[in-house]
Design brief:
- By secondary structure, the protein is of the alpha+beta class.
- The protein has one domain: Regulatory factor, effector binding domain (Multidrug-efflux Transporter 1 Regulator Bmrr, Chain A, Alpha-Beta Barrel).
- 24% of the residues lie in helices and 42% in strands.
- It has 2 helices and 8 strands.
- A hairpin with a 4-residue loop joins strand 3 and strand 4.
- The radius of gyration is 15 Å and the shape is globular.
- The two termini are 28 Å apart.
């Protein structure tokens, strides 16, 4: 697994975020949420400019959101999707290079590092930012930013 284990502090910007939320074990909810969201992307794109693909999640209550960021507040969203203006804030960013199948292990390692280094986190969503496009990027070159909400 190719994970940069030394985090960088970044500020995630305020984001127009359209998402599908699922509650439960991530190994079940994440694939289901992305499957539905990907089918909605053409309809979202008809009236909105998608600027990125991102998941937001909370480990404690097991809330998972598969979503897209938009250039502006959404217009004419497909049924079943939600919108919020995500406030962003200060995060510690770790970077994984490689296939999405490595994400569970990489996220687990990130939380081990947080625990080992006694990094204080605020009560907010963690972020997985998919920095490369899997339609054109080979799986071993995919870049995913894993961000945890820093105090």
């Amino acid at each position: 697994m190719n994970l940069i284990e030394t985090p960088v502090i970044v500020t995630w910007p305020e984001t127009h975020y359209v998402f599908l939320e699922k509650i439960g074990p991530f190994q079940n909810t994440a694939p289901a949420a992305w499957g539905i969201l990907h089918k909605s992307v053409p309809a979202i794109s008809e009236h909105n400019q998608i600027t990125g693909y991102t998941s937001l999640y909370k480990v404690g209550p097991k809330i998972y959101r598969a979503g897209v960021s938009l250039a502006a507040p959404p217009q004419q969203l497909p049924e079943g999707l939600a919108y919020e203006k995500f406030k962003g804030g200060k995060y510690m960013k770790f970077v994984l290079t490689g296939p999405y199948s490595n994400l569970p292990q990489a996220s687990g390692r990130v939380f081990e590092i947080v625990s080992e280094k006694k990094i204080q986190l605020r009560d907010d969503y963690c972020i997985e930012n998919y920095a490369t496009d899997p339609r054109i990027t080979p799986a071993d070159k995919l870049i995913t930013e894993i961000l945890v909400p820093a105090v």
